[in-house]
Design goal:
By secondary structure, the chain is α/β, with parallel strands linked by helices. The protein is built from 16 helices and twelve strands. The protein has two domains: 20-310, Spore Coat Polysaccharide Biosynthesis Protein SpsA, Chain A; 325-410, no CATH class. 46% of the residues are buried.
Length: 441
C-alpha cells in the first residue's frame, strides 16, 4: 500500500482498557472461553492480559462496536459466533466487544454470554469516550495480534445472519480485498446523511462509486489499521466520524475495495425531525476536513472508479423509515431563519436569495445542481475559519433539510430501484461540478 505524502504521523496514545481475565473450560473437547470483567485493577494490565491469552495464530478478529446496546448485544454476539463457527470452523477466531462508553449493562451482558469462541473487551474510561476512540485501541491491538481478517459490525444490528458474516470474511480471506464496505437495501427516506452528503462527496471528489461509506459494518486486512493510525485524525474521527475516516483513508491508501451485499439492515433509525444526532455534525465535519487535508490527491483524480460487489444482488424490501416530509420542511424553514446570517456568509448571494425566496413563498425546491454548489461552498466556509466550523455545521443542517425535503417529494411515488437511480444521478452532478470546489482549494 502506498504511503500518502499528505498524511502527518499520528502516534496512538495508550488507552485505558477494562481489566480482563479469561478462563478456559473444556466442553466436548472444545475450549470454551469466558471473559470475566473486574473493576479496574492496576496489577492486571490490558497488555499483560492480551499477551497471555492471545491465540498463537489469529485468523479472524470479529468486533462489535456498541454503545448502550444491552438488549441487542447477546443475540448479536451469539449470531456472530455461530456464523464464524459454521463457515470457518478451522480458523482461529476472537470475538471482541468495542464499547464506546455505555452507561447500561452492555459490557456485563456480553461478558456473561457463553460461547465456544474466546472473547475480549475493549472499553474506555474517563473523558476519552467515543466510537472512534475505542476502535483506535482495536487498531493498536491488531498490530500485535496480526489477524488475517478483521470484521467490525454495529451493535444495533437486529438481523445479522450467517451469510452476512460469511461474505464479509470471504471478501478478505478468499477474494483478496483489503477493505469491504457494506451495501444495504434502504428505505428511500432512510440514510439522509449518506444520500445527500457523504455518498455524493465520495463519488464526486474521491471518485469512488461506494454507496454506503458510513455503513458501520466493515471487513479489512490488518494492514489498514496501521495506516489509519498514522493518518491525520480530525477531532471528530474519535467519535462518529470514524466510519467516514476509515472509508476515505482506505480509498486514499490505494487499498483494494469491494462492497458486500448485505441486503436490508434492521437497525435504529433516527428521525431527524425529532433529533439531529451528533453523528451528523461529526461525520460531515470529519469528511470536510479530510477533503481539505487531501486536496492535492483529490485534484489528481480524473474519473470515477466502479467498486465491485460481492454476494447476491437481489435486494430485500427494506423496513419503512417513518419520517414526515412536512416535519423536514419545517426544519428547513425555522433553521434558515435562525441561521440566515451564517448561511449568507457561506454561500453565493444568488443562492442565498433563492433560499430566502423559497422560505418566503413556502415553496421549497432545491435542485441537485444548486445543492452540489451549496455543499462545495460550505466546505470552503469550513476551510476559511476553522474557529467557527461548529457554527458552519449548524448553518449547514437546515439547508440540508431543504434538499432532503425536495428529494422526498421527488421520490414519494417511486420504488426503491427508481429512488436509487436519482441518488446516483445526484452523485454524478457532484462529480460534474467538482471543479467549482477544486479551483478554490
Amino acid at each position: 500500500m502506498p504511503t500518502p505524502t499528505s498524511l502527518s504521523t499520528f502516534i496512538p496514545q495508550s488507552l485505558p482498557l477494562m481489566a480482563i481475565q479469561i478462563t478456559f473450560q473444556e466442553s466436548e473437547g472444545v475450549p470454551c472461553a469466558t471473559t470475566l470483567l473486574n473493576e479496574r485493577n492496576e496489577s492486571l494490565s490490558p497488555t499483560m492480559a492480551e499477551e497471555e491469552f492471545l491465540p498463537a495464530e489469529l485468523d479472524i478478529l470479529a468486533g462489535i462496536v456498541a454503545f448502550n446496546n444491552e438488549s441487542n448485544i447477546r443475540p448479536l454476539a451469539g449470531k456472530l459466533s455461530q456464523s464464524l463457527q459454521a463457515y470457518f470452523p478451522d480458523r482461529h477466531s476472537l470475538l471482541a466487544l468495542c464499547d464506546g462508553g455505555s452507561t447500561d449493562n452492555t459490557i456485563k451482558a456480553f461478558s456473561e454470554l457463553e460461547m465456544f469462541l474466546p472473547k475480549k473487551v475493549f472499553s474506555l474510561a474517563g473523558d476519552e469516550l467515543g466510537k472512534g476512540t475505542v476502535l483506535k485501541s482495536l487498531f493498536a491491538f491488531t498490530k500485535q495480534a496480526k489477524p488475517k481478517a478483521i470484521l467490525v459490525n454495529s451493535g444495533d444490528i437486529r438481523n445479522l445472519n450467517p451469510e452476512w458474516v460469511k461474505l464479509q470474511t470471504q471478501s478478505i480471506l478468499e477474494q483478496g480485498y483489503d477493505f469491504a464496505a457494506p451495501f444495504y437495501a434502504r428505505h428511500k427516506f432512510d440514510g439522509y446523511v449518506t444520500n445527500h452528503v457523504v455518498y455524493p462527496l465520495v463519488y464526486g471528489l474521491l471518485c469512488h462509486d461506494l454507496r454506503q461509506p458510513i455503513g458501520g459494518d466493515y471487513a479489512f486486512t490488518s494492514m489498514l489499521p496501521n495506516y489509519w493510525l498514522q493518518a491525520n485524525w480530525p477531532v471528530n474521527a474519535s467519535q462518529f466520524g470514524i466510519d467516514i475516516f476509515m472509508t476515505c483513508y482506505a480509498i486514499i491508501s490505494g487499498a483494494s475495495i469491494c462492497q458486500v451485499n448485505l441486503r436490508a439492515k434492521e437497525h435504529n433509525v433516527i428521525d431527524p425531525t425529532k433529533t439531529i444526532s451528533p453523528m451528523f455534525r461529526q461525520t460531515v465535519s470529519t469528511l470536510f476536513k479530510i477533503v481539505l487535508d487531501n486536496a492535492r490527491i483529490i485534484k489528481d483524480l480524473r474519473r470515477v472508479q466502479p467498486v465491485p460487489h460481492m454476494g447476491d444482488e437481489k435486494a430485500d424490501e427494506p423496513p419503512v423509515a417513518a419520517i414526515d416530509p412536512e416535519g423536514v420542511k419545517e426544519k428547513f424553514v425555522t433553521g434558515f431563519v435562525k441561521h440566515r446570517e451564517m448561511i449568507a456568509s457561506c454561500i453565493t448571494d444568488e443562492d442565498f436569495t433563492r433560499l430566502r425566496n423559497l422560505v418566503q413563498h413556502d415553496s421549497v425546491h432545491i435542485p441537485a445542481e444548486m445543492w452540489a454548489r451549496i455543499v462545495y461552498d460550505f466546505i470552503i466556509a469550513f476551510k476559511r475559519d476553522m474557529d467557527t466550523s461548529s457554527e458552519v455545521m449548524k448553518a449547514f443542517i437546515p439547508v440540508m433539510f431543504g434538499r432532503m425535503y425536495t428529494f422526498m417529494t421527488e421520490v414519494a411515488d417511486k420504488s426503491t430501484e427508481e429512488t436509487e437511480k436519482l441518488v446516483k444521478a445526484q452523485a454524478e452532478v457532484f462529480f460534474e461540478q467538482r471543479g467549482y470546489l477544486l479551483k478554490r482549494l
